[in-house]
Amino acid sequence: MVVTDRNLRLETTEQGFLVNPADWNENVALRLAALNNINLDDEHWEIILFIRHYYQRFKHLPNARVFTKAIAKELGEAKGNSRYLHKLFPEGPLKYACKLAGLPKPPTCL
Asked: pLDDT tens across 97-110, in order?
C-alpha cells in the first residue's frame, strides 16, 4: 500500500504501518489517522508522542500491559488505563498508537 503526503509517496505494510519509520512526520500521522477514521486531537498526540519517545528510548515496543503502565507512570493514572486508551483508539490502543506514530507493528498485536 502507498500513502501519499503531498509529493511524497510512503510505502506501508498490508496493515498500514510505515515500512520506513524515518518517513514519519506529523502530516504523515494525520494522513494515516484519516485513513483509519481517527480524528486526532491533543489527547491522541500525547499518546502518539509518548510511544515514539518510548521506542526511541528503549529500542523496542512494549506489550499492551507495559504500555498502559508506562503511560500511567509518566502521564498519570487517568490516562494510563484501558478505558481512556480505548476511547482514543477503539480498535486497539497500542496497535493504532504505533501505526500513527510511524512505528513498527507491535509483536504482540494481531
From this structure: 999 999 999 887 66
For 66, phi then psi, to 5°, come to -65, -40
Spell out the domain ranges in the chain.
2-100
Query: How far apart (Å, rounded) are the C-alpha atoms in residues 4 and 85?
Result: 28
Q: What is the DSSP letter of 22?
A: G
Torsion of CA 5, 61, 71, 30, to 10 degrees: 10
Is 109 one of the catalytic residues? yes
How many H helices and E strands in the chain?
5, 2
Top-level CATH class of 2-100? mainly alpha
pLDDT digits (tens, 9 = 90+) for 9-19: 789 999 999 99
Residues of the chain whose pLDDT is less than 70? 1-8, 109-110
Q: Which three cell numbers stand for residue 59?
A: 529500542
- Given 6, 49, 109, 110, the catalytic residue: 109
DSSP assignment, residue 85?
Answer: H
pTM of the model: 0.90
